[in-house]
Amino acid sequence: MSSIRTPLRTLGAATAVLLLASACAGAGGGGGSGSDSVNVLMVNNPQMLDLQKLTADNFTKDTGIKVNFTVLPENDVRDKISQDFSSQAGQYDVATISNYETPMYAKNGWLAPMDDFVSKDSAFDQADILEPIRQSLTAADGKVYAQPFYGESSFLMYRKDIFEAKGVTLPERPTWQQVAEAAAKVSTPEVRGICLRGQPGWGQVMAPLTTVVNTFGGTWFTKDWQAQLNAPEFKEATKFYVDLVRNHGEAGAPQAGFAECLNNMTQGKVAMWYDATVAAGLLEADDSPVKGKLGFTQAPVVKTDSSGWLYTWAFGIQKASKKQDAAWKFISWASGKGYEELVGKNLGWSKVPDGKRSSTYQRAEYKQSSGTFSAQAEAAIKGAKPLDPGVQPRPAPGIQFVGIPEFTDLGTQVSQQISSAIAGAVSVDDALNNAQGLAEKVAQKYKGQ
Question: Signal peptide location in the record (predicted)?
Fold first, then answer.
């Protein structure tokens, strides 16, 4: 959830930061009601804009189906999708949703299942979809309700030259304790040991922190909805995270998110960064000052075998749509192998929407463009466990989030407490005691269900 959950790998490093800062929107028309057209509501991430540009001359030319795009920034598109799909107004046939929304939307009856479409479309090759991604887009009834456009996990990025100069090494699967030791050894006033998100937001500080909580043995809720935010394991993980970023982290950590850490890493101000796999392509971009200087490891662990998060932007079909066949044809094209080849040949393999198909990582052209990080990114996604991310059973799916509607608000409120602890305005104990009260209120809604 590189918000953050954005495929900024497609841009140069400096441009990516400007894009995040400006939050520019691209918008298309929402009209078109003919049977030979579909209406698509889509987030304005760079790879989505590439899709928009390629559609008319390829998909429409081949199928005769016109695609009317409405393209909005993330927060706006989420609100609009929620309004249209919850009312089943049917204004939009297809929308971009993530693995956070998909199971909930399916449970509410807002999405059309795709299993029948998949079974009749052998060219789509559902088996090629990376298993954790497919699983995260499958609802409790066992049916698939969305198809991925791209996906990501999280891993550790570090400056090989700095580590070599200091005589410090990291294994391919380090523990968080090893990472903390390395951060202490390489940290200087000019180049800090590590960058970790501290900015408030359920998709900002809570994303990496929750993966740390998982592998330290903690959880937001037990299987029977007992809130656990002030439990020993959750406290230990949070104190570790807060201490690490306060002692060896970036300047301005309480307000640092994906964009700020990207900037710090690009400018050589930090020696390590734990964040989204999508960040690697930005750091290895041709215009990046740190290109060729980076090493990559799997997400650090403590008690679990893996701890990387999982996020995907995917396409879902509104159940009320009267154009489901045409909608599927568009999704099959946009999420298919042929589209990746189209992007690779026309825009360059560095712009391929990766992170969703096994075959992508076998392409020689992709391997050449993605340098040293593609194998680590693939392993991170394949190792993600959206239904079993910790050491105990969970009441809802999700690795870096809890798959319930209330989490956006709960996670944001808790994140404000954590950010205050990073700033030194409140102790971790007090922050988590406050957070526990918030979580208990949410848990009351689910107990006994």
Answer: 1-27
